[in-house]
Amino acid sequence: MSYENKLKNSERAIEFYNACYYFLKKRVIALGASEEEFKEGIRKPDFPCYSMEDVMRAYACIAQDKTVSCNVIQFAKNEKQIQKCLFDWKIDRILSAYSSSDELTERFVEEFKLGKKHTTWEKYAASIYGFCKFVKELKLLKFDDFSCYIQENSKTLKKRLELISRFDKIPDVGMAVAANFLKELGLPKSNSYSLYSKPDTHMLDIMHGCGFIRCRNEEDCFVAVDELSRLCDVSPYKIDKVFYCAKSGNYYLFRSIRKFEDQFAKYFVKK
């Protein structure tokens, strides 16, 4: 897909975004959140980062970002034990303590008393270890260097796509996981996170289901959301949050509201 490719049905796309926004806002407020909480929830990243330890923690959470992996790794439940295995999120300590992802897997097996079958943990360990190597190879172990690198490589759509593609060398990381990591990385004095969207199944359902992209392609979806953000004069991040929360019914951003089954598809997306 060309970077200059225009979004199909631009007027309908703007109308659809606005409808989704008010659809979500109405339901979130009805469930007890204030309007201020709603606006803040779709604006700020999930992981404010002020150190490389914060970055590593963010990656360790997002690395499980697949349904099966989430159910097995359960980062929210097991964070303290994972943190222990990863030396309080210190990348240099991880690389010095483990000579390979296999050794990290063995550490997880010991810590969580896993059985013989632990394929998901093996993949998780490979992703964690691969990210640490990725950061070291790019000489980004210092937070200021890492932050500048992300900001510099997020300035244009072409650069953002190229940055996402560099994560391909990390095991078990596809475009959706890489984009989600960059999307939720809140770096000081930077809005780079707001320039990303996550082309996951919910976004693909919407963008393809509404005819805004021709096929269920992650890069096409990412580019189309970028175009839609310009048309609507809002960030790709905000579009992502509105579409994801409205489509999934998972209102995790707002107070203790966790899940609300709605009829989003009935109202908007033709199956």
3D structure, described in words:
The chain has 271 residues and is mainly α. It has 2 domains: 10-45 and 197-267, no CATH class; 49-152. It is 61% helix and 1% strand. The chain has a two-stranded parallel sheet. The protein starts with 9 loop residues before the first helix and ends with a helix.
Which helices and strands appear, and what pairs or packs with what?
Layout: H1 10-30, H2 35-41, E1 47-48, H3 52-62, H4 67-73, H5 75-85, H6 91-97, H7 101-112, H8 119-137, H9 143-152, H10 157-166, H11 175-183, E2 185-186, H12 201-209, H13 218-232, H14 236-248, H15 264-267
Parallel strand pairs: 1-2
Helix pairs in contact: 1-14, 6-8, 7-8, 12-13, 13-14
List keywords for this structure.
two-stranded parallel sheet, 15 helices, 2 strands, disordered N terminus
Number of domains: 2
By DSSP, the count of extended strands is 2
Low-confidence stretches: 1-5
Q: Strand pairing plus helix content: what structural class?
A: mainly alpha
Spell out the helices and strands N to C: HHEHHHHHHHHHEHHHH
Q: Tell me about the biggest sheet? A: 2 strands, parallel
How large, in whole angstroms, is the Cα Rg?
A: 19 Å
Distance between the termini: 25 Å
Mean of pLDDT: 89
Query: Could you tell me the strand content as a percent range?
Result: under 5%
For the largest sheet, list the strands in their spatial order.
Answer: 1-2
Tally of helical runs: 15
Q: Give the % helix.
A: 55-70%
Shape: globular
